[in-house]
Amino acid sequence: PAHREVVTRWLAASPRRASLRVATESDCRNKDGLAEHRREQGKSYQPYYAVGDFNRDGREDFAVAFVGDRRRQSRFSFAVFNWPFRNSLPAYLDENVDLRVMGFFYAGSGSNLLLGEFQSDYCVILKPRGKSYRGTPCLED
User: For residues 25 and 34, is the Cβ–Cβ distance under 8 A?
Assistant: First the structure.
């Protein structure tokens, strides 16, 4: 509920974001990859929502993906929100990413947040950088 409130406030703060909605698993076009990932990680896995201490400050952060449905082809974006959530501003925002076959991956404490294609080696590591994040291809790390 606290995350939903933060996202709702952030979306409402800009008319430009009025066409965005939170992405759901129905937006995923890689149904086989998602099903396989759920077999490995658990049925409760959500591809477009992750919670954890991404910046290692001892507090809960969350990441969420959005879809803008105004154009013919849905356009994705995602945001990472760091604790505290009171100002509702994301610590990181990518507004031009294709998540139709991808999702978030987080292995837990001490891990980085990953964004990658299901059942492939293609991914991006979102590493903390000050109060924001920096994306690094997984194969370069």
Answer: yes
